[in-house]
């Protein structure tokens, strides 16, 4: 932290000191509106379970607060700085288990409000839904501090219900519910799972949302939540590009981020009309983070690419033409970006779909089929693989002559919800066909040969690798499948697996069983030793 942007910085919290063996990680954090406190979540040994702690920023001393059994949660402070909302599951019977190695199914997510300086047993239950034990919830406070927004999720699809509660309507405040056997009086604005709704900004009761309602590449809409019958479009869906995010800045402007052919574009637009004001200069790559507040004229933009370790831009929106300057840049000793090249190609899949793929290598390599090649993919859950920097991959390119490729197969979010759905449920085979097509492209165009081609993926990407090896063992010489979802007939019975049925389906249903049995990989490790699985 530092007193001003050009002032001397001091360490507030160093995750590297949390444990001697490096197995405790900082998973989330949130700073109170007045800057006096930081609440942060720690996870141990790679577990999804999180414990929330609080530190006094002024004296950098820990507070006694410790919240357990937190999972899939953000931290959102009320503007008075007296406490924050978080999500948790009920403590297991007996109160203890080997968190992180257990396989118990996660049910009955709940929203609580923690009052600073009190024991977790006194936390206020704000929302639960025992009739729908598989639902998950998130709570956040609007930027003006007036509303609590409750989002309800059924699985991993980009759809949610959305409720709100006006804090000023609570006569005794949130703490008045501590001794009452009732939850906060949320109003159900959206009470179905037809689409996704994310709050962008609000002026009193008038809210602007980012949504995919009748817009698979997303759009911005506006509604008065006290008169929800009339919804108007602010920024219509783009004909090709995906609207990834929108942030209110400089009082009445929007900073919007589009994804165009897996590369990010930043635009400044008018909050009221959606009209374009200016397109910000940005090289080919990914916007990793946008840090801003509506009342501020300055925005900080994180940027990365295959050949850029990381840049933070400081953007002044006050002039007619915004001024972007480099604020921080990560430097990697010995790395010369001019020694490498990155190109994007579009590969026809089995059904003719056009699949983007990035190819990184040393400059001016001979396409003679001799290069060891790493092909990475994911293809699921509406997640996009945009350009990012990897020391490990560059070491392979520089020191071992590798070609490193990232395939943007269907199932991801690279072209919106239609692209996602084209690689999910009954269409999951498209993911494997797309990946195989990218591999065949690399071989036929002289980058590599099947014996020198290694494929890699993790989680849903681990399933991709296992299915690819099962279906096309002739195409690959090595396979790295990290923490893959392999048992497609039983995954929904353990931990949070039930949420993944929105992408895969569920074997309890006969039709969906027939999808899953065709590519399930629970026997993945029983392969000939010529194929390496990790």
Automatic annotation (TrEMBL):
Annotated ranges, domain Peptidase S9A N-terminal: 3-318
Q: Entry's InterPro entries?
A: AB_hydrolase_fold, Pept_S9A_N, Peptidase_S9_cat, Peptidase_S9A, Prolyl_oligopep/macrocyclase
- Keyword annotations from UniProtKB, A to Z: Hydrolase, Protease, Serine protease
Tell me a Gene Ontology molecular-function term this record carries. Answer: serine-type endopeptidase activity
- Give an example GO cellular component term for this record: cytosol
Superkingdom is Eukaryota
Peptidase S9 prolyl oligopeptidase catalytic domain location:
387-519
User: Which protein family is it in?
Assistant: Belongs to the peptidase S9A family.
Q: Which PANTHER family match?
A: PROLYL ENDOPEPTIDASE
Q: What is this protein called?
A: Prolyl endopeptidase
């Amino acid at each position: 932290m530092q007193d001003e942007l050009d002032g001397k910085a001091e360490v507030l919290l160093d995750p590297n000191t949390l444990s001697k063996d490096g197995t405790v990680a900082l998973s989330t954090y949130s700073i109170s509106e007045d800057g006096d406190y930081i609440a942060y979540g720690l996870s141990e040994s790679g577990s999804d379970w999180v414990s929330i702690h609080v530190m006094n920023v002024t004296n950098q001393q820990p507070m006694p607060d410790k919240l357990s059994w937190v999972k899939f949660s953000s931290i959102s402070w009320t503007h008075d700085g007296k406490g924050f909302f978080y999500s948790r599951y009920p403590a297991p019977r007996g109160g203890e288990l080997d968190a992180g190695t257990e396989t118990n199914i996660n049910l009955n997510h709940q929203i609580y409000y923690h009052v600073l300086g009190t024991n977790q047993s006194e936390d206020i239950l704000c929302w639960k839904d025992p009739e729908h034990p598989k639902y998950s919830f998130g709570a956040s406070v609007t930027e003006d501090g007036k509303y609590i927004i409750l989002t309800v999720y059924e699985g991993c699809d980009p759809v949610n219900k959305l409720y709100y509660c006006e804090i000023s309507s609570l006569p005794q405040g949130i703490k008045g519910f501590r001794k009452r056997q009732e939850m906060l009086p949320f109003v159900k604005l959206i009470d179905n799972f037809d689409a996704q709704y994310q709050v962008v900004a609000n002026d009193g009761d008038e809210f602007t949302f980012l949504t995919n309602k009748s817009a698979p590449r997303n759009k911005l809409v506006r509604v008065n939540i006290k008169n929800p019958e009339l919804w108007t479009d602010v920024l219509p869906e783009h004909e090709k590009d995906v609207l990834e995010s929108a942030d209110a800045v400089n009082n009445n402007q929007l900073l919007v981020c589009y994804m165009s052919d897996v590369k990010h574009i930043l635009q400044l637009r008018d909050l009221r009309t959606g009209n374009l004001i200016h397109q910000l200069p940005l090289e080919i790559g990914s916007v990793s983070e946008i840090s801003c507040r509506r009342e501020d004229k300055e925005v900080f933009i994180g940027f990365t690419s295959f050949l850029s370790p990381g840049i933070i831009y400081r953007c002044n929106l006050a002039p007619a033409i915004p001024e972007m300057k480099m604020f921080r840049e990560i430097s990697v000793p010995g790395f010369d970006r001019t020694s490498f090249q990155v190109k994007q190609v579009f590969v026809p899949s089995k059904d003719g779909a056009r699949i983007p793929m990035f190819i990184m290598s040393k400059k001016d390599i001979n396409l003679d089929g001799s290069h060891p090649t790493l092909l990475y993919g994911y293809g699921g859950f509406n997640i996009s693989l945009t350009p990012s920097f990897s020391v490990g991959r560059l070491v392979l390119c520089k020191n071992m002559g590798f070609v490193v490729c990232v395939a943007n197969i269907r199932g991801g979010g690279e072209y919106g919800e239609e692209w996602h759905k084209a690689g999910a449920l009954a269409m999951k085979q498209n993911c494997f066909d797309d990946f195989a097509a990218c591999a065949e492209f690399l071989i036929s165009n002289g980058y590599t040969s099947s014996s020198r081609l290694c494929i890699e993926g993790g989680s849903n990407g681990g399933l991709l690798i296992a299915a690819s090896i099962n279906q096309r063992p002739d195409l690959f010489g090595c396979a790295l499948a990290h923490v893959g979802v392999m048992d497609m007939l039983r995954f929904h019975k353990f931990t949070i697996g039930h949420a993944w049925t929105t992408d895969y389906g569920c074997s309890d249903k006969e039709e969906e069983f027939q999808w899953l049995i065709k590519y399930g990989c629970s026997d993945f490790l029983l392969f000939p030793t010529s194929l390496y699985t990790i």
